[in-house]
Amino acid sequence: MRIHPLVVDGLITAAQTTVAVLLGRESTAQGWPAPDSLGWTLVALANLPTVLRNRAPVPVCVGVLAVSAAYVTLGYWPVVNSLGPMLAFYTVAALRPTRTTAVCAALLAGVWIYAGLVTEGSSMASVIAQSLAYALVLWWFGHSAHRTAELTRQLKAEQAERARREVAEERVRIARELHDVVAHHMAVINVQAGLARFVFTSDARTAREALDTIAGSSGEALAELRRMLGLLRADGVQGAADGAPAPGLDQLADMVDRVRAGGVPVDLRITGEPRPLPPGVQLCLYRVVQEALTNVLKHAPGAQAQVELAYRAGEMTVSVTDDGTDRGKGVDPARKQDRGGHGLIGMRERAKLYGGSIVVGPRSEGGFGVHLTLPTSAQSARRGDAVAE
């Protein structure tokens, strides 16, 4: 759980003010006048404003230094209010440029040297040396914090840009595959249109069936085309369409056999009543299973894997799990947690593209799991999705 920065500043200020109060109560023992009501007011004004030091570093620093100088001028023990100005100056060094920090450093050293001048018996050589040394040390620590914060911001920006590029590249690859799906529909429409035109006057029934097929294919093609255009417009990426025809669920068994040949025992289970699905949905299911089994081959070779494909009312689900063990080696906790990379980005992008949901991560009983749920199209529902299980 992250704590709000203002809460952290409040706790630091409370601790610092407590130390100042304890030092104030020790003033008499150190030979200095005990703070009266005015003295305690100045103690509060020299410490409590530091709660706002990250929001207004320079005003807070100048303010507490001015109050500390007034406290010393009235003859109180200078050490009481030493922490507030030091903390305020450190914040300036951490958040503001060098020129501003140099001015505040001169003010800090000047207040301490002034305290030495108005205090009887002070060794000015020691006071000046301490004033300069403390100012330089605080400046160095503040500069280091400033540099670290800058590097952290740059790193986060680079990571965000890299993630954006990876998502864009993955979306282009998905769009290329969707192009193949749309091209498939266009080929079907072209053939059926030719058939309908050929038998239009001689075989009305065949012509109507061809027109029904055209209507169904065109509807699915339009849906896939909308998804593809939406994907490309999301980040303004463009990519050429090429490659082999997109695979579907009819090739799932062949893919599982290839993984088995790679050394991973895979159990393929299909539940529900199989029915026709849009090629894009089949492609999404196929690619998620492919990526999940590829992760098993990479990160847990020899683990027992299970693929379960379920035909349900209005949706399709697929689960890919493994037990996280390697034959003869047992469970490798470090390896089973390391499943990041472009593959997970691709899974999430595919699920998002088709309006589905995906859960990816380690399993409580061991191993790794991927669970994808995809809604099927309204046209698929008319062909059987609406039937209750």
Give average pLDDT, whole number: 81
- Which percent range describes the beta-strand content? 5-15%
Strand order of the largest sheet: 1-2-3-7-6
* Strand elements, count: 7
Query: What does the main sheet amount to?
Result: 5 strands, mixed
Compute the CA-based radius of gyration. 36 Å
Alpha-beta classification:
alpha+beta
Task: Note the run of SSEs as H and E.
Answer: HHHHHHHHEHEEEEHHEEH
Could you name the ranges where pLDDT drops below 50 across 5 or more consecutive residues?
236-244, 327-340, 378-389
The CA-CA distance between the termini, in Å, is 43 Å
Q: Tell the overall outline.
A: elongated
Keywords:
12 helices; 389 residues; two-stranded antiparallel sheet; 5-stranded mixed β-sheet; 10% strand; 7 strands
Describe the structure.
- The structure is a single chain.
- With 389 residues, the chain is α+β, with helices and mostly antiparallel strands.
- The protein is 63% helix and 10% strand.
- Strands 1-2-3-7-6 form a 5-stranded mixed β-sheet, covered by helices on one side. A two-stranded antiparallel ribbon has the order 4-5.
- The relative contact order is 0.07.
Secondary-structure map with pairings?
Blueprint: H1 5-25, H2 37-47, H3 57-73, H4 83-95, H5 98-118, H6 124-199, H7 204-235, H8 252-261, E1 266-271, H9 279-299, E2 305-312, E3 315-322, E4 325-326, E5 330-331, H10 333-337, H11 342-353, E6 357-362, E7 368-375, H12 378-385
Parallel strand pairs: 1-2
Antiparallel strand pairs: 2-3, 3-7, 4-5, 6-7
Helix pairs in contact: 1-2, 2-3, 3-4, 3-5, 4-5, 4-6, 5-6, 6-7, 6-11, 8-9, 9-11
